Amino acid sequence: MSRKQREIANRHNLFLEIGRGILEEDGFHLLSMEAIAEAAEYSKGTVYQHFSCKEEILIQLCIQEMTELQTLFLRASQFEGSNRDRIVAVAYAHLLWSRIGCKKNDMLQHLSMHGVRDKVSDSNLKQHDELHDSIVGLVNNIVNEAFKAGELNKSKTMLAPDIVFGLWSLFSGGQLLQTSELPLEEMGISDPNMTILRTMMLMLDGLNWQPRHTEAHLKKLLKSFNTQLFVEEYALASAEP
């Protein structure tokens, strides 16, 4: 890249990071081209040279986050263990991803708001949707492998997409609640992420997903994830307040 190209790329990334900060601190409604320009000490016109609207900033940030999540899910799907171990690895990857930084699920929720997707470019929308499909596909593949291996019994009422949706709802919902102002500790929830994981274990037991995990096996898995599979991510998540 030439010096000018590097300057343009650096400015683009600067605007994105400022946009991320506004989203995390103030929310989507207070994100504006004017606010980014003021914080970056550039003209509003310069910001518009990079983004046509604030929705473009949002979707590019979502693409960054989805790319990180896809990388973690791919690594989790290749974990050496049973298919049930791998689905737990995927779930734990989602928890770590959510803890590194903040309000990532909120950001993705904003993209689903009425009219937002209509304002972004077709190319960015396509990239986002392909990432989403790839992530869901990775999880679907693990569930289908469990069916093929006889670790899960086929059911007319709970197919792979149903199971994936149920897990997705559990983790996304649980993580959204952690970013709310609910007094979780006062409610007796001292470790929300372990509560989510244990709830997942009960769900998998209810599906009779073999082999079943004891509490000891779950803790052994988590130690393996933290010390081998997601070393860097665990360190970053642990450093978060």
State the secondary-structure class.
Answer: mainly alpha
CATH architecture designation of the largest domain: Orthogonal Bundle
Report the sheet-strand fraction. Answer: under 5%
End-to-end Cα distance, whole Å, is 38 Å
> pLDDT under 50 segments (min length 5)?
none
Spell out the CATH superfamily of the largest domain: Tetracycline Repressor, domain 2
Coarse morphology: elongated
What is the total number of structural domains? 2
**What does the oligomeric state look like here?**
single chain
Describe the sheet with the most strands. Answer: none
Helix-strand topology string: HHHHHHHHHHH
Q: Treating each run of at least 4 consecutive H or I residues as one helix, how many helices? A: 11
In short:
This protein has 241 residues and is mainly alpha-helical.
Can you describe what's shown?
The protein has 241 residues and is mainly α. The chain has helices spanning 3-26, 33-40, 44-50, 54-77, 83-99, 104-111, 122-148, 160-178, 192-206, 215-229, 231-239. It has two domains: 1-51, Orthogonal Bundle (Arc Repressor Mutant, subunit A), CATH 1.10.10; 56-239, Tetracycline Repressor, domain 2 (Orthogonal Bundle), CATH 1.10.357.10. The protein has eleven helices and no strands. Helix 1 packs across helix 2 (33-40), helix 1 (3-26) crosses helix 4 (54-77) and helix 4 (54-77) runs parallel beside helix 7 (122-148). The two termini are 38 Å apart. The model has no long low-confidence stretch (mean pLDDT 93).
